[in-house]
């Protein structure tokens, strides 16, 4: 079966390369009928990649330890649902999953009405680009990232899955990220093909729904990654500005910028080249994220080693950037219109886009700083979370302020529904006073929190004030997304700076103070199974004598892993969430060292993220009205 899986990928790679060449011949010689071969050929390549994926899944489910990949990431005691998710736990498997998603999305797009409406030359150039991307994946999968390497003799037992990955969040977090990354291939290739063909193909209308769906997947993946960090790593937080976390956030920022500039082109006919650049940049940044994670260039808790993938990834990024710039400067769009002034909806959207891109540049430079600083320092150092918080959080707060103002401005300038607009301004000021009286007195959290509440109320107010907005499903989707983002901003603004944290040793029936709360150890238990040994503490929490709940954090020792792992316990709340992990314990269980914290408003981050991952689906309906 090793050879079956490998040769499926090999034949898919050869087919993709040949078909990309045929599509280039068709585009160059103005013989678009040749490109029809690409459609049937791509279906064959997608079928081969599906077969290869099925081989790997079957080997995982059968615990076939003659596969090096299966032996590296599973063992005989691993539950089946984690065994299946080991498909994307390792470098080779995750690359196969990503490539498979690209192939399937290409097949789905090929059967869509948008694809049928493409001009012949645009269709030919689309296949040149899309099949080249697909071939690049397959070159990696048949070379440095081969998931079908055999062990001879087969291992008697596997190494097991990293315990940090044995969490429900990791079942969905990586595939959602890869679905997002893969989805951006369609609009990026479509936009570049449209410009290369020099035909009046409305690529934005065909590509924007794919960009939006991909953005939804990426948003959900990032949110689940933050939740996994919060619940599994035991550090008490959801974001540490880790390079791998940053890697997925950077293309999210550029994709978010594109969705807003696409709105400007859709409504006002401006910024066509900007949209093409941002869409292509988003896809390239997805590969840059892969380079960060898989090149070994940075140190991270969950990055892979190089494995020979650094040079191919850098080469692909440079070629992709060159192709993008060539397409951008090859021609002008004579139909492009000028922007209105800054004091208009267009102007505020453009400023918001610049803010998003500025945040992305800061995060990229900060992430790559250990590499950049090697140019002048023999001992380069990375930047800590404090740097990102000082630079990025004020920019995010300003972005929230823009979102509060933007819906009330007209496309050509002026204020719409001025009475409601002044109500929103009043809410912003009143929210600032309330938050200040509640103890939120640091300038950035105060500004961010007040702006978030103004965005939340403003999103509801514009629906009440504007009949056209109420009748537009995309407007509901956009405002709902802004509402979700406002809740995330509120949670971040308060939960981080105003977290109360302590490390203490608890003894039976002796309370320890944590902010307004008392933590009291009531007992413990120890269990074991062939897969792991578990110590669990039972900690009662009260506030001023009134019971709040019970925490049951665990310390686990998995078979095959020498390092103990913490299992977090929380008492959820829309206000203060109590959070605890076990650091160490006495064998008799009468003394337990814990790390505990009070995280105010943290659950609004997950509520807002859920809203941001669901309501944008309303925006898949194309807008018919123009303001």
Alpha plus pi helix count: 20
Strand content: 5-15%
N→C terminal distance? 59 Å
Q: Could you give the count of β-strands?
A: 10
- Average pLDDT over all residues: 90
Question: Structural class of the secondary structure composition?
Answer: alpha+beta
String of helices and strands:
HHHHHHHHHHHHHHHHHHHEEEEEEEEEEH
Low-confidence stretches: none
Main sheet summary: 6 strands, antiparallel
Radius of gyration: 26 Å
What portion of residues is helical? 55-70%
Any idea what the shape is? Answer: flat
Describe this protein's structure.
The chain has 627 residues and is an alpha+beta fold. Among the domains are: 1-171, no CATH class; 398-497, no CATH class; 502-602, no CATH class. Helix content is 59%, strand content 11%. It contains 20 helices and ten strands. It has helices at 2-28, 36-61, 68-73, 80-85, 91-110, 113-116, 120-141, 168-183, 185-197, 203-233, 243-268, 272-294, 310-330, 345-372, 385-405, 418-437, 443-465, 467-470, 473-495, 603-614, and strands spanning 500-507, 512-514, 517-528, 532-543, 546-551, 554-558, 565-567, 569-571, 576-585, 591-600. The strands form two sheets. Strands 2, 3, 4, 5, 6 and 7 form a six-stranded antiparallel beta sheet that branches. Strands 1-10-9-8 form a four-stranded antiparallel beta sheet. A hairpin with a 2-residue loop joins strand 2 (512-514) and strand 3 (517-528). Helix 11 packs antiparallel against helix 14 (345-372). The radius of gyration is 26 Å and the shape is flat. It starts with a helix and ends in a 13-residue tail after the last helix. The model has no long low-confidence stretch (mean pLDDT 90).
């Amino acid at each position: 079966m090793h050879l079956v899986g490998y040769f499926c990928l090999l034949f898919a790679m050869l087919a993709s390369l040949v078909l990309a060449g045929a599509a280039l011949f068709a585009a160059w010689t103005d013989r678009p009928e040749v490109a029809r071969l690409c459609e049937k050929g791509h279906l064959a390549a997608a079928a081969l990649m599906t077969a290869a994926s099925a081989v790997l899944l079957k080997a995982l489910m059968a615990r076939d330890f003659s596969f090096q990949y299966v032996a590296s990431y599973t063992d005989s005691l691993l539950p089946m649902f984690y065994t299946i998710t080991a498909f994307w736990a390792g470098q080779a498997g995750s690359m196969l999953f990503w490539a498979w998603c690209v192939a399937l999305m290409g097949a789905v797009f090929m059967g869509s009405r948008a694809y049928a409406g493409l001009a012949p030359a645009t269709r030919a150039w689309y296949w040149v680009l899309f099949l080249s991307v697909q071939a690049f994946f397959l070159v990696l999968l048949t070379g440095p990232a081969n998931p079908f390497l055999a062990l001879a003799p087969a291992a008697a037992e596997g190494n097991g899955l990293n315990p940090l990955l044995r969490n429900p969040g990791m079942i969905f977090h990586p595939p959602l990220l890869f679905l997002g990354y893969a989805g951006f291939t369609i609009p990026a290739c479509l936009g570049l093909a449209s410009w290369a063909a020099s035909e009046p193909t409305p690529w934005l209308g065909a590509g924007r729904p794919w960009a939006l769906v991909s953005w939804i997947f990426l948003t959900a993946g990032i949110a689940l990654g933050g939740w996994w960090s919060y619940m599994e790593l035991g550090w008490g937080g959801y974001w540490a500005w880790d390079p791998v976390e940053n890697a997925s956030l950077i293309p999210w920022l550029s994709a978010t910028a594109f969705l807003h500039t696409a709105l400007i082109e859709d409504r006002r006919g401006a910024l066509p080249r900007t949209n093409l650049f941002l869409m292509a940049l988003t896809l390239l940044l997805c590969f840059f994220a892969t380079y960060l994670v898989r090149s070994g260039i940075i140190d991270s808790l969950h990055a892979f080693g190089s494995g020979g993938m650094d040079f191919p990834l850098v080469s692909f990024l440079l070629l992709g950037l060159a192709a993008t710039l060539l397409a951008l400067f090859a021609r002008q769009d004579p139909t492009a219109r000028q922007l209105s002034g800054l004091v208009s909806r267009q102007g505020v959207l453009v400023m918001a886009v610049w803010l998003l891109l500025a945040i992305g540049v800061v995060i990229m430079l900060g992430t790559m700083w250990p590499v950049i600083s090697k140019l002048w320092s023999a001992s380069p150092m990375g930047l800590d979370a404090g740097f990102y918080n000082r630079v990025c959080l004020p920019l995010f707060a300003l972005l929230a302020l823009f979102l509060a103002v933007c819906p009330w401005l007209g496309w050509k300038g002026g204020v719409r529904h001025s009475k409601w607009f002044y109500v929103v301004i009043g809410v912003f000021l009143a929210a600032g006073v309330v938050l200040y009286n509640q103890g939120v007195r640091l300038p950035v959290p105060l500004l961010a929190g007040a702006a978030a509440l103004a965005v939340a109320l403003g999103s509801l107010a514009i629906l009440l004030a504007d009949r056209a907005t109420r009748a537009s499903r995309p407007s509901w989707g956009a405002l709902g997304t802004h509402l979700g983002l406002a809740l995330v901003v509120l949670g971040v603004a308060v939960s981080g700076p105003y977290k109360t944290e302590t490390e203490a040793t608890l003894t039976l029936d002796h309370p320890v103070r944590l902010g307004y709360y008392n933590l009291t150890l009531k007992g413990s238990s120890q269990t074991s199974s062939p897969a792991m040994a578990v110590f669990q503490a039972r900690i009662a929490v009260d506030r001023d004598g009134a019971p709040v709940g019970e925490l049951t954090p665990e310390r686990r020792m998995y078979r095959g892993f020498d390092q103990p792992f913490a299992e977090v316990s929380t008492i959820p709340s829309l206000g203060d969430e109590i959070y605890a992990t076990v650091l160490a314990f006495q064998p008799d269980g009468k003394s337990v060292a814990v790390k505990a914290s009070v995280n105010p408003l943290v659950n609004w981050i997950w509520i807002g993220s859920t809203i941001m991952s669901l309501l944008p689906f309303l925006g898949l309906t194309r807008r018919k009205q123009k303001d």
